[in-house]
Amino acid sequence: MELTFKDAAKERIEKRLKPDTKLVLDFDDGVGPFSDAASCTLDVAFSLVLCRPDQLTADYDEHLTSNMGEVYYKGYADTQLDGNMSIDVDKMLRYKLTGDSGIIDPNMSLRDVQGN
Length: 116
What we know:
mainly beta; HesB-like_dom_sf
């Protein structure tokens, strides 16, 4: 699996990165420290999480390659993902996750939990 951050998304995210930042593509299903609650709808919901290495738990047992380095995710969530995906910013400044099959999440959140 591969993930490409389009220029607009990459530019916005890079401003928040620290030398040891880990990127997590979090499937919002209630599992893991970054998932507050499972989605109660039939929609698929993802968040891009910026975290410290010590915040990355065993729940995120897989990673994919991207033009911003490794991106961790829950291995069982790969059924919701495509082989080739991208993250971009739409005209309303929302992050959008798309793949070979079309739009995966039209309103993906960005969560920076790194603290100071």
